[in-house]
Structures are given as C-alpha cells and as structure tokens.
Amino acid sequence: MSSHYSASFSLTLRVRLVDAPGSFADLARAIADAGGLLDAIDLVRVEPGAKIRDVSVLATDAAHADAIVAACRAVPGIEVEHVSDRTFLLHLGGKVHMDANAPVKTRDDLSMAYTPGVARVCRAIADDPDTVWNLTIKRNTVAVVTDGSAVLGLGDIGPEAAMPVMEGKALLFKEFGGVDAWPICLATKDTDAIVATVEAIAPGFGGINLEDISAPRCFEIEDRLRERLDIPVFHDDQHGTAVVVLAAFLNALRVVGKRVEDVKVVVTGIGAAGVAVTKTLQAAGVRRVVGADSKGVVHPGRGDLNAVKRRYAEETAPEDCGSADEALAGADVYIGLSQPGAVSVDGIRSMAADAIVFAMANPTPEVSPEEIAGLAAVVATGRSDYPNQINNVLAFPGIFRGALDVRASAITEAMEVAAGHALAGTIGANELSPDYIVPSVFNRDVVPSVAGAVAPPAEVGGGARRARGPA
Questions:
Q1: For residues 199 and 135, is the Cβ–Cβ distance under 8 A?
Q2: Residue-wise pLDDT tens digits, 235-290
Q3: DSSP 8-state secondary structure symbol assigned to residue 301
Q4: Would you say residue 317 has pLDDT above 90?
Q5: Radius of gyration of the chain, Cα coordinates, nearest whole angstrom
Q6: Distances in Å between the alpha carbon of 328 and those of 248, 263, 377?
Q7: How far is Cα 363 from Cα 24, in angstroms, rounded to an integer?
Q8: Would you call 31 exposed, middle or buried from its count of C-beta atoms within 10 A (0-12, 13-18, 19+)?
Q9: pLDDT of 129 higher than 50
Q10: Is 386 one of the annotated active-site residues of the chain?
Q11: What is the pTM of this model?
Q12: Which of 145, 240, 258, 285 yields a CA-CA distance of 20 to 30 A from 264?
C-alpha cells in the first residue's frame, strides 16, 4: 500500500538555527530527504546569532515521524529544542467538558437553580415522572458506554485507554448532532455487571450508545438492555456501521445499474458489524448473502460455530461451503469487516462484472484499492484518505437526534433502514459517481435528513413519546 500523509501524524519541531545563509535550507532538505512534508513555518524569536522557529511537518506514521526528527537532529548548526505531537496536544485535558445552560451570577439565580427553588422542580418530577424530559438534561443526553475490550483496531486495551475514543465520540455527537454525550468507561468485562451498571445510570440519559465491546458479549448486552430500558440502546459498532454500509451499497448499485434483490453479497468478518450489516441488508431487500470468517464460509454444516454464527448460518443459508475467495466467484458485492488478507486480488478478479468492493478493515483494508484498480467498478474503505469512506459519524448523530426529538423508547430495524435510505439520498443522481457514493462527514445536510427519516418509523414502532416538530 502506498503511503499517505496525515495530520494525525503531524509534528511541530521547535528548532534553533544558526543565523547563517542556508541554515533553514539545510533543515528543509533534511526533512524532504526523510520523506517529510513541510506544513507550516513560524518565527518564534530572534536571538544573537540564532533564530528560533516552529516547523510543522506531516508524516505517514509514527515510525516515519521519529525518522524525520532524527534527520533534523543530525543537521549541523541546528538544535531541536522540543518536539510536539499535534495529535497529543489536541488531547491535552480531554476533548469535551460540561458547560452551564443557565447563569448563576446573583442570589436569585442561585435560589432558582439550586436550593430552595430546585425542590419544587424535584417534586414536580416525582409527581409526574414524564416531566423529567422537559425539566432536565435527559431530553438531549446520551451515555457512550464501553468496557475497552474492542477499541478500534487496538483490541482489549482497557477502560482508561478507551477514554480518548469515547471522548471523540462525545465530541462528534455534539458537533454534528447537537447531542450532549458523555463517556462512561467501565472497569469490568462481566456481562451481568455491565448490564446492571447501565440500567442503574439510565434514568439520567435519553439514550445509550454502546461502543467497542467485544463480540459475542456485545450482542447479549445490547439485547438485555433493550429489553429492560425504555430509552434507545444502540451498539454503534453494529448498527451505525450497518446504516452507512446500506447507504453506500444503495448508491453503489445505482452507479452500476443493479437491483438490490438481484445481487449476491459476500461478507467477511462475522462479528458485531458483520452480523448487523447482513441483517440490515436483508431488511432492505437483499436475498443472497454469504458470510465467511477466518475458517471459511459460515454454513450450517460447520461444527465449530458459536450460537451467533449458527444463527447467522441458518438465516443466510449460503449455497457456498468453501473459502471466502471461492464464495466471491460471480458475486456482485464484497463487504469486508475483517482483517487484511481476508480475500485475495484473485478472489476480487473472479467477481461479476461491475463489482462493488467495500474493504473496510482499518487501518489496513482487506485488499488495497491500488491492488484492485480496474477490477471493481466501485471501491470503498474505512479510511479518510481514500474516496468513499464508510464512517459511522454519518449515522449515529442523526439517528440519535431523530430518536431524541420524538423521545423514542427504542431504535428499530425500520428506523435503521430509513436512516440508510436518507443518507444515500443526500447525494443527488447528478452527483453520483464511482468515487462519490457516500456524503462527506462535513455535509451539514446529513444529520437533518437522517433525523427526519427516523422519526416516522419511531412514531410507528419505536415507542415515540411525541411527534417530531418542524425541522
């Protein structure tokens, strides 16, 4: 795979340069020779015989960043005083904080916001519990809950190390959906304990977003919480992924001129996301799905399947029993939610004409777009540095925005399918192309479209407590 420069591997070097002709040119040459990309140059101060500058540099990964710094330190006449990783700087002190909705500047303010005035509000909620939606933050607040057992591509790193991801999720909820979300990182992997804890804190939230909990525990945790709580419980690794995949899938089919009910889909990775994606595609009308794990096609004849995969095999009823590559022969769509190398270039080559490939393993796709250039009509990945990024931020802010707006008690399959169609519809027919099947995460039409689409099915089957007002 070719290298990609990224702001996530960006450094600011504070350097002291001898005040002599060519000194900065020497530094710039060292950065270029190390493969770095100059981003910004700022003069900090001038001292007798020297200039101090901040030099920002883009790298392709952490090892590359270290190599650039080493190259700069080796240049005669240049002293690297300090190196700042810009991504770490962004995280200093955390990425979210609580702020006040009401001022407390006078004695009157204090008496209404807290004691004694607050007692009357508490009594009103005790007398009529439904008023909690109007008189507290519950109406617009979501808990982002994890045990740190399946974080991004990092795996089981624990609740403390999961905090930056959960903070990031809360930040995206606020920025894109106007939803106040808070990270809840639990120091237990016990299913009963997680269910009991979330159930206990649920009164303070209007929704629960489960995040980065390993399979198969995540299925049981979500199912039990959905049974016990009267607010939406949404495992984003499953359902957020499924909604965005559905949107990309629908638009990719429009690009190649194929129909949902006619295509054969092969999925690799039958974990949380793979199961959810399959169910959502089936709910949208897909008739033929074949799933595969590291041991091959998941079919009823295999004796090594856990309960989740046995049910998957029964519900997909694949006609294939071999490897993932063998299942790809003649398939129209490949959806990878697994790991690099799950399928081969030859497997992609064996697909039907105008093949669609979603290789979403992160950070390294199952097959790289460069390797299959010309073999697929449409390619999508989970990365931001390729076209067609399948990114959950396109789904969860709008889904929760819509659910909170109608005070839904659940997020149903019908709501998820409606969200997928709405997301796909944000790209007009005249805009669609093989490199543009999902909207940008910065497209401000996405959240209102998705929120508006999930409200009607929520009012029908999602336990909505009120109708959605005008957008």
A1: no
A2: 999 999 999 999 999 999 999 999 999 999 999 999 989 999 999 999 999 999 99
A3: T
A4: no
A5: 25
A6: 19, 12, 15
A7: 35
A8: buried
A9: yes
A10: no
A11: 0.89
A12: 240
Pairing of strands 378-381, 288-293: unpaired
Angle of CA points 377, 319, 322, to nearest 5°: 80
For residue range 371-406, what is the model confidence (pLDDT) as tens digits? 999 999 999 999 887 899 999 999 999 999 999 999
- Smallest CA-to-CA distance from 337 within 356, 361, 355, 313 is with 361
Longest distance between any two alpha carbons in the chain, whole Å: 79
For residue 42, the one-letter residue type is D
Structure-model confidence comparison of residues 94 and 7, the more confident one:
94
Tokens of 267: 């999925």
DSSP 153: T
Q: Is 169 a catalytic residue?
A: yes
**Nearest alpha-carbon partner for 370 in 3, 15, 62:** 3
- Choosing from 169, 264, 279, 309, the catalytic residue is 169
> Which residues touch 129 (CB under 8 Å, ≥6 apart)?
none
**Cα–Cα distance list, 428 to 74, 423, 451 (Å):** 53, 11, 18
Residue 2, pLDDT > 50, answer no
**CA gap 229, 124 in Å, rounded:** 22
| Contact indicator for 119, 159 with CB cutoff of 8 Å | no
**Eight-state DSSP code of residue 352:** P
Token pair of 71, please?
Answer: 């190259």
Encoded tokens for 40: 């910004």
N-term to C-term CA, the chain: 44
**DSSP-derived 3-state class of residue 326:** helix
> In the block, which residue shows the tokens 């005070």?
407
Cis peptide bond upstream of 434, omega within 30: no
pLDDT at 57: 96
